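Anyone up for a design puzzle?
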């Protein structure tokens, strides 16, 4: 689908826990072919102090109802304002932006790893990988049980593994402490990862050790979202690249990360 600016109607706003909200947005124009990992840049109209749009992964798409959903974790004024958007109001949304994850050409055994609000792009990805008959394994981590949102939704598309830092659910520790990394990693032909940068670097290190294909979705701070302001650049082996247009998904071998 070509990117466009659309005034999308908020048709549902569900509070999932203390700081996570799920917004469902209805598009006036017919949705088509949005790839897992692409994102939307949303204007925060109701705030006096937030002038720049805020980027969010496209969490799910319903082509029949012509809606997308956005999973929002409140961390500042923009996310707080957007997460309290009333039903029936409209948001200005530029989407779909960026490049999505590279999908396998034939059936593979894949591992999706998500932490924090980085789990957001992985639901659409899991759905598409499952549709294409891949063996989908999904490892989700949080600080505590309450941070693990929508496990039932992810479970529709793959086998779920979990970690919590306080041990309240799943294995105790960070996602990279999960036993899957010590005993099963060789079984996977691809790892897809999104979350806080230290987490993605730790996953990338494990993937590199076992030479497993690995893509990460970066969440650099953005402004325009389409390659004009250059505020989102990351260093790659081919020089500086815009995360918004060249990413947000990158193969770990492209990135100049100290890992
Ligand atoms: C491609 C992409 C996809 C994203 N997808 C999602 C998503 O699906 N759900 C979601 O909840 N969030 C997502 N984010 C992050 C989200 O855009 C930020 O949380 C949001 O812009 C913060 O706005 P704010 O006004 O609430 O916070 P601000 O007031 O702007 O910032 C609050 C604090 O958070 C820090 N901060 C702001 N943005 C980031 C960031 N990107 N990384 C690390 N620290 C940051 C600031 O430095 C500041 O300390 C995504 C970001 C990108 C680039
Ligand atoms: S956000 Fe403006 S160039 Fe990437």
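Challenge accepted. My sequence:
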């Amino acid at each position: 689908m070509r990117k466009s600016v659309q005034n999308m109607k908020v048709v549902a706003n569900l509070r999932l826990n203390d700081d996570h909200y799920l917004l469902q947005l209805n598009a006036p124009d017919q949705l088509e072919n949005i790839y897992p990992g692409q994102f939307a840049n949303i204007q925060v109209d109701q705030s006096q102090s937030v002038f720049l749009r805020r980027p969010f992964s496209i969490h799910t798409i319903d082509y029949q109802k012509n809606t997308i959903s956005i999973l929002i974790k409140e961390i500042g004024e923009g996310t707080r304002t957007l997460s309290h958007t009333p039903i029936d109001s409209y948001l200005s949304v530029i989407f779909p932006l960026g490049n999505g994850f590279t999908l396998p050409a034939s059936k593979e055994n894949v591992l999706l790893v998500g932490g924090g609000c980085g789990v957001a792009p992985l639901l659409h990805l899991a759905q598409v990988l499952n549709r294409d008959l891949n063996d989908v394994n999904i490892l989700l981590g949080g600080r505590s049980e309450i941070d693990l949102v929508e496990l039932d939704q992810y479970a529709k598309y793959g086998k779920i593994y979990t970690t919590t830092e306080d041990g309240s659910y799943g294995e105790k520790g960070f996602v990279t402490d999960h036993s899957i990394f010590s005993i099963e990693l060789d079984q996977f032909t691809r790892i897809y990862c999104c979350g806080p940068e230290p987490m993605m670097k730790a996953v990338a290190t494990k993937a590199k050790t076992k030479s497993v294909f690995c893509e990460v979705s970066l969440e650099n701070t953005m402004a325009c979202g389409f390659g004009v302001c250059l505020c989102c650049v990351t260093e790659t082996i081919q020089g500086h690249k815009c995360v918004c247009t060249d990413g947000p998904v990158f193969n770990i071998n492209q990135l100049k990360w100290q890992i």
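A detail worth pointing out: The radius of gyration is 18 Å.
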